[in-house]
Amino acid sequence: MPQQDCAAVLEQYRKEVLESFRGKLDAWLNVAANPCTPEGDYKFDAAQLQFLLQREKADAYVSLMLEEQRFKLAIDLIKTRSELVLNEVFPRMAAAGINIGQPLLQGDVERVLGIDVTHKLKELTAAIYTNVDEDLASLRAAHDMLRSTMKDLYIP
Fold this sequence. Notes:
Helices cover about 75% and strands about 0% of the residues. The chain contains seven helices and no strands. It is mainly alpha-helical.
């Protein structure tokens, strides 16, 4: 899992999906669902990175493994929210005769969706914003740490 790839995936998602609703009260409802969330093998090959442990660079190794888990969490949150929107929100809105883009009061939307779906949608959306922002910062820091570690190991 090259860190630049993970950072690029999250940065693209942040720019294309999250930023247009950042700070808006209706972000929980209007952030786009992504039926095609990023797929692929975003995993480090732990065996190939064990040389970091053997050279007393355990911090870099641990940081990389942590970033893999953080990235997976962010992607899982995006997938879970998208599935909720596609499988619960859209059908309930359609059954209530609500068209896309139709202006509604928040209370009306919450009644149509129900307390459970509304709560899940709000919590997942907030978690996505938090995780994507934090992951982008920590991926950059891990990248810098790995780069510095590699220089220390291989450049005299």
